[in-house]
Design a protein that fits this description.
The structure holds two protein chains of two kinds. By secondary structure, chain A is an alpha/beta fold. Chain A is built from eight helices and ten strands. Chain B folds into two domains: about 200 residues, no CATH class; about 230 residues, no CATH class. Chain B is elongated and about 115 Å long. Classes of the chains: A alpha/beta, B alpha+beta.
Amino acid sequence: MSDVVLDVEHLSKTYELGKRHVQALSDVNLQVKRGEFVSVMGPSGSGKTTLLNVLGCLDTPTSGRVLLDDVDVTKMSEKELYRIRRSKVGFVFQTFNLLPYLNARENVELPMECVGKPAAERRRRALELLAKVGLAERAEHRPQRLSAGEQQRVAIARALANEPAIILADEPTGNLDAKSKHEIIKLLADLNLKQGTTIVMVTHDQQIASYTERMVYLNSGRITREKQGTLAGRKKHACPYCGGKIEPGDETCGTCGKPLMPTEEA
Amino acid sequence: MGVLTRAVRNISRRKTRALLVVVALGFSMAIMVSIPAGVTANQLSTQSLTSNLSGLITQTETSLNQTLTEVDCSLSLRFQGFGFSGGQFSAGGFAGGSQAGGFMPPSEFGGGPFGGGGEAAMNASLYTDVNASLPDVAAVVPVLQVSIGHNVTIERFGRNFTRVVADYVIEGVPLVSPLVDDYPILPVNITAGRNLQAGDSGVVLLSENNTGYFGVGVGDNVTILGQTFTVVGVHGASGVSDRLTLYMNLSDAQALTNNTGQITLLKVFADNSADVSSVANEISALHPELTVVTNQQRLSQLQAMQASYGSALQNAESTVSQMQATATQEIVVAVAATSLIIFFLMLYTVRERTREIGTLKAIGFSGWNIMSQFMLEGVLLSLLGGVVGIIIGYATAPMLASLLLPHVNPFNSAAGFRNAAASSLSIQVLVTPTLVLAALAAAAALGALGTLYPAWRASRTRPAEAMRYE
């Protein structure tokens, strides 16, 4: 298995809005390594969501190619694509998109149902995942009885259900209050740090992005620059701000005192 | 938690909507259930009327043919000669099968239609001039007919009607030679024991119906109006006229019914059938107060009537087939309505849940997974509608069928309440396992048909677009 989970080469996507052509993505090149946590930054309309949809096989590019776990997904039929989506990709949405008539556990079980996992096994794994995101007690609650932050945790647990190669999160903190926002980014960073989950997160929130490993800036459908986030420093035991020695679990740098992990006050 | 649970939860999520749709489907299904039942009820009642009528006419014709030389003279005011007149023949039997088979019991003719006698007693001594010495007359047989019955009160349309239902009819005939042997004054079809014979007294010949009524058989004693008689034989009625009639000696009958010297009918037999009308004219001239009817007149009346019933029945049959056509159209409408209700509901549901469909696709549901989810929901809803339809149909079939089907009543010229009663068809939807299965199968099929396109559309939804859908 190659070290690169996601390899995007010369990716372009043009929409036709009536007679107008909208270039949503143009010549995007991006590599995401296994265990990396990348955030894609950019203003509204910069093509972030389009990129994520193409990466997640929800949309097809106009040109270029996307290799997901060494498989070229750009040439696949819809029939092959849903197989890729159910096994290789986990989606987290801005609006959580939980099914309102299913409880938390049942929502987490859904993707496992697609791959034909037995009921008992699905249940066991769903409860395990809910425990992992801190919702063991809320497993039988329906979404409307959960807070926004809790709903997003359920959505993250659902995304992890089939042990995908990559988690694609589209503005996962976009609909959350400050407290929940930090809880979610912390949860994602933890998953990445401790479980090695590969994550690509789209956000327009500079601060949230700064806690990831690598920030990719997208503007008018092009990647304009890249920058390291605090998570990269934590992985290298060096503060990204002052270079002082830190441990991956540290919340602030011992030398310069800057936050390494999101806190409620931050 | 599989696809079925999700379908059930989705349906129960919008309870009011589901309820409304199920009730609407229920009505469509009820139409589908009750219309065939209505058609069948009408067909059955037409069929039973047809067979009753033709049986009756054949029997009557046979018995008339045997006695073509007979001329009946009576003081009857109740009907002019022939039993089948006016309202008498409005045929309660057409009240949708409820009375079919009970078509026109002889009692309704007031004691036997072909006795021609009603029950108006006449003093035999006044008519001694009607005798065998008249030109062309072979024999004169005095007969006493007395109908014994009980009053029955029926309520129709808020009014009470009382009528007498005959239990049996006593017919006294002179058991003397050669009348008994040479003239058809006694039944010919003896099914048990023997016929009455000259000189018999204190004995009776019962009809099969009588044996049931009195609970006796040949050789038994039977008590009639307080007097004991011995049953010597049983006759199988040769026509509707004598179904309830028991025969005994004339003098026995007169004594028994306190009618000494009284008769109700003079049966005059002409020398041959060609003389019948001149004999009738002679008697009419002698006794203008008598109602004189020849069996020949009856036969031609019967034949005319047979023709008119034939055409009435033909009308009924064409109404029934017209009704079948109407029924087919209505069922097609109901089928279309059912499918359309499901179609629009599911189309709306699919639109409403576009984001959900996008989400399901994003997390790995295939088009087929999604299609089967919606198909199952549509079929489940229709099945619920089917169940409700059977219940509604069971409760309202007569009303629905009479609202939706043309009425079949071949004798609608006949006046009277019985005719009105005939229009309230007693249609029943029999909830048999077959009907339940058929209705549910139809519901499932129509549900599937109606859901097919919406579900297919859902399955073809492109996830990226669905996620953007607000």
